[in-house]
Amino acid sequence: HNLTKRPEHMIHRAAAALSRRAAALAAPSSRGASSVAARAAVTSAQGVATASSPNTAAVSFAESSAIAPSTNGYCRNFSTAAADADEGSPWSEFPMAPPDPIIGLTEAYKEDDFPMKVNVGVGAYRCDEGMPFVLPCVRKAEAILQASQLDHEYSGIAGCVDFVNHALEFVYGADSKPLHEGRIAGVQTLSGTGGLRVMGEVLKEFGHTEIYVPNPTWGNHIPIFRNSGLEVKKYAYYDFDNSELDFANLIADIKKMPQGACILLHVCAHNPTGMDPTIEQWKEISDAVKERGLLPFFDCAYQGFASGDARKDAAPLRLFVEEGHNLALVQSFSKNFGLYGQRVGALSVVANSVEEAKRVQSQLKVHIRPSYSNPPRHGARIVSTILKDDKLTEEFIEECKGMASRIDSMRTRLRGKLEELGSTRDWSHITKQIGMFAFSGMSKEEVEGLRDKHHIYCTLDGRISMAGVTSKNVDYIAESIYDVTEK
To answer: Among this protein's residues, is 282 annotated catalytic?
Structure first.
């Protein structure tokens, strides 16, 4: 049967079917094998994805003795029920996508049956027992809402007005001039991710073709903006060799950006490095951004959680506002309020006038409506219930301090243990960084060794979620890091 004479789409379909059958035959049967396979899948997903070219696949398939002619003129393989069922499906040529680097990491961790396994990959706070933590003030707010017997009607396209008002005051400050003047347009979004996507689409529609993000940045920033239609470019941020802020090159890159371009900035607790500019450096960044007439777009995911002081964490944003920047901001309430599954966020824009703010908000709503129509209410009600009550707000501030303090103590212990073990590396950056993550400086190979030999799961760039480090596992983590880095 001469496969090379068949239409190309049929060749691809046959090759895909063969791949599916081969994968089914090779599926591991034991739990241990599943664990190894899962870890291998994570490695593949986190690395650069590669695939055989169609031509290579076609030749390989054509050389297989399993190919036989079919009565309907299509290439068939193995004559299996699974392949037959797929062949007539409109989805038959859909390839299996690699697992998400973070979600896939968690799945591999769950498959691992090693008793001392540790997951320091996911950015979600854990108490010192390694368990999910619900803030006591959130429990109180939920009780208030339950007693209120509220309805479950739709919110408006822009979300819960009460929530948006309190969210903006929380980040811009009660004394914010543009807030008092009504020059800030705000909407509720599906956490920070939803706000980033909405703003990306709006930027694209109104003339922006690219956005500059720090190198490195949160992994999801890049696909979010690319899927919004923007070209993603990077500016210098981190000195990987010395594990510190690359400030000189950061400023130099900003000064090279095209006039009017959009630049993404992390308000605090930069993800993944945890290395933030000082307030003096932020002033220089503001001056450089203003000099180029850039549009600053801030991502604020850790206000209050980073340092334990919400006002201090918001200082860079407030500085830019005071210096007259017309900026955009996305807020997430996942980390600081522990509302990960509620998807609570806000998107806002500082405008020149009330009338301009109204026009901007109308455009934000135009993009929200066909995307998710309107946001959910429960999480937004929890946040607004806390922020409009002085006592609950004080409790929230103290609870944020408690979370930040625990993470800081784990940073100190992790660094101290590594130094106690006699590591030849400088680990001082662990305690210089801030927020949920420690950017360890470990290589991909060292991270893989940490996972395969010691069952400690972190992302391949060496980012460690300090929220997963506890008083019970910190020594084990340090000893394991020492083992893979001191070869």
So the answer is: no
